[in-house]
Amino acid sequence: MAYHFDDLKLDKGMYSVSGKSFTAVLEEEDPTERYRGTSLEEMDAYQRQLKRFDIKVKGAGSDVVEKFFQTSQSAVLFPEFVARSVRQGMEEADLLPSITAAETRFEGLDYRSIASVPEKSKKELRRVEEGSVIPQTQVKTQENLVRLHKRGRMLVASYEAIRYQKLDLFSVTLRQIGAYISRTLLEDAIDVLENGDGNSNAATKLKVGTSPIGGIAGTLKYDDLVDFWAQFDPYEMNTLLVSGDVMLQMLKMDEFRDPMTGLNFQGTGKLTTPLGANLLRTSALGTGKLIGLDRRYALEMVKGSDVMVEYDKLIDRQLERAAITTIAGFAKVFQDAAKVLTV
User: Fold this and answer.
1) Integer Cα distance of 183 and 180 in angstroms
2) CB of 19 within 8 A of CB of 40?
3) How far apart are the first and last CA of the chain?
4) 185: exposed, middle or buried (Cβ count in 10 Å: 0-12, 13-18, 19+)
5) Which of 55, 190, 317, 325 could share a disulfide with 159, CB 3.0–4.6 Å?
6) Cα–Cα distance between 59 and 61 in angstroms, integer?
7) Strand pairing category for 239-242 and 271-272
8) Is 168 helix (H, G, I), strand (E, B) or coil?
């Protein structure tokens, strides 16, 4: 049976289609729907092109980098291999989906978010008498722009140095680059949660041993966490970002030795607190700190682009300095949905 993907003409211009990824362009030319009920239905358009040129990118039998450059058309696939490997590394180390309420796509570097900050009396859904005015919730754009930043790494290697390297091994290096980018984005997110996005919406900062948090400064007890939890009404503290030293103090609490907490950790690798919040450890947070948040309302991630690579250089085997970048920023949604506690 003849398949359309065998005859598809590939060229580097497929990377420069505005608003579309390379894979999206391939899917338009070779829709996956055509392969329903065949042995190729589990592959996307890019994976079918790898099959076309017999390029194996993982496993014990993976090919070497040079396999991509056997023809001018197969070389066009190499930048997408790099981008996919980097994205995989970002996803493996990514805590952002656990702390963001929404993800917005935006073309540009300056983004203006929206806000609704009603007074306490206007949050109440009071009874409306006949003929009375219904209370309003005003939604408006923020005064200051949220700036998106380009983050990335430079891939520095000569083609001669990597041409005989196995693709499976080479992808490990690319995944590490993705992990670095993911950590940098997390640092940006934590900075916005803690200090705001420039619109006077920094998080409330609390300290152990200082009202309304009890306890003794420098030591974290379970009662202090309960006091911290109580500050979130009407929000829900369902996520805790903690530094490594704070994590150690929490795991030594008797309350965290509950059998069900231990079984959940052993079975899933995920920690939850006795207060029901997901516990996320990160070295991107300063020592002695934890951030509590209602992940449904605290943070918006604004993406200016997915992972981008300098496809011209990669296709032409000019790997000496090829940039791998992504553009993103963060905006605070509701100020009181995130609070910082210093031990």
Assistant:
1) 5
2) no
3) 67
4) buried
5) 317
6) 5
7) unpaired
8) helix
d(CA 50, CA 164): 18
Coil, strand or helix at 260:
helix
Nearest 5°: the CA angle 138, 140, 146 is: 145
Q: What angle do CA 275, 278, 279 make, to 5 degrees?
A: 100
Q: Which residues is 339 bridged to in the sheet?
A: 204, 292
- Summarised one tens digit per residue, pLDDT across range 279-311 is 999 999 989 999 999 999 999 999 988 899 988
Residue linked to tokens 């950790």: 265
Name the residue with tokens 């608003």.
Answer: 19
- Tell me the helices (H) and strands (E) count for the chain, helix number first: 11, 14
Give the Cα separation of 317 and 82 in Å (integer).
Answer: 13
Q: How far apart (Å, rounded) are the C-alpha atoms in residues 297 and 300? A: 8
CA distance 334 to 121: 17
Quote the pTM value.
0.83
Reported as a single tens digit per residue, the pLDDT across 129-187 is 666 666 666 666 677 788 888 888 888 888 888 889 999 999 999 999 999 999 999 99
Distance CA 111, CA 197 (A): 11
Nearest alpha-carbon partner for 208 in 248, 246, 240, 254: 246
- Rounded Cα distance between 71 and 52, Å, is 12
Starting at the earlier edge strand, list the strands of the sheet with 102-105: 102-105, 299-309, 322-332, 149-155
- Amino acid identity, position 261: T
